[in-house]
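ok so I'm stuck.
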Amino acid sequence: MTPRWDPCVVQDGADFKQFITSHIDQPRRKILLIGGAGFDPRATKGAHELATIRRCQVDAVFFREERVMDQPILRPRADNTQIELSKLLPNAIFPKIEIIPDGVTAVGGRRAVEEIKQRDFSQYTDVAVDISALSCGVYFSLIAFLINICRQKHGLNLHLFVVEQPQIDQKISGIPSDQASMLHGFRGTKSLDSTEEQALLWIPILSLGNSDVLTKIYQYIRSKSRSTPIDVCPILPFPCRNPRLPDLLYTEYFENLRTWGVDDRDFLYAAESDPLDSYRTIHNLVSERHKLFAALGGSQVVLSPLGNKMLSVGAMLAAIDLDLPVVLVESIGYDEQIDAGTSSYDLELRHVWLCGEAYPSISIK
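replied:
not stuck anymore, here's the structure
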């Protein structure tokens, strides 16, 4: 199992600005920017960067994620975000997508893909997905779909933009629905029901405030009539900006870890700000596990990325590369404690180049 994104182009700061100038802002380029128009203060960062270019045409689609819970405080902030994005990129459209319309069935990723399918990708040289203000269930499905488009249209460049800011991630808490579900586009090669006799490894990413969510996910996996034990290898962010974060997570999840049968040797560690670290960590573990269990009927691996966006991006790349199922609990609304101003936060946009000209000698699987 050769990793598809090793090496991979990851840029920030001056390197990213140079990328915008030298690659994107060219007369022969036409770019489609896909993002979210929500309450998250990071929502407009990608549009601000692309609004500065003059020679490249920019089209934009910003999703308004609609959830069943009324959000009287957050909705006006999302409206203001839409107004600002419209000023930055006048060609932008703002389709609304229902994320979990009945409070049970998560359809946000599917609805987003259906909307993007209407685009004629033959007219674009580049597609950029700014996940800074998109929920995990939406951008996972979008990226997986767009990578398939890249298979069909040789030379199409696919970029991922994200404002990496763990402090903001920790201040936005989803209000979970009642049950977990498989993510659209990430069901794996075989269903969990059909592999109940195989050994199963569950890899959750631990984040503050999500103990109940991971309990629901564990119960969902267990409910699939599994006759074999579930091995659990949680991912802890390390190194990270807050050096005490691993200890805080261990304390918060102490009862969960005991229920799951996790000991100190089972933890995985991945750098909080490097998506390739979590990608390689998961890829290496899954590759070795498949070798080990090949003679025993195989092994199933399930991912559950929560919280930190950069760790989740790495998990997404591993899930796409290895065709792994992803189980999540969708949110019916959000609770956030973000400060009134964002000047205290370092909102630096990062760029991950997923497909296209940067990899001329690498065939897309």
